[in-house]
Amino acid sequence: MVFSDAELRELELAPDPVSAFRNGWTRKEAYVKALGLGLTAPLTKIAVSLSGRAALFSTGLQDQSVTNWRLLAVPHPRAVVVVALGPRLDTTKTT
Length: 95
Prior knowledge:
single chain; two-stranded antiparallel sheet; 16% strand; alpha+beta
């Protein structure tokens, strides 16, 4: 329900599926929270890495480009922590 086809294939091949799931979910969650969409985002159209360096492969949205986003893993001894950095979405204009 939350992973793309590519992510599901990566999860099936992962040497540590639990770690891969945690990485994938945390990376995807960071991105959709940064968008402000939460669970209303098209989760199966968004693709992130499940192992190795945190990366966004597909934004799932036509108005968002992968090149405008970075996922940064934050070292933590007991948790998987990821920050999503993307374009500033101003809702007000200054004059």
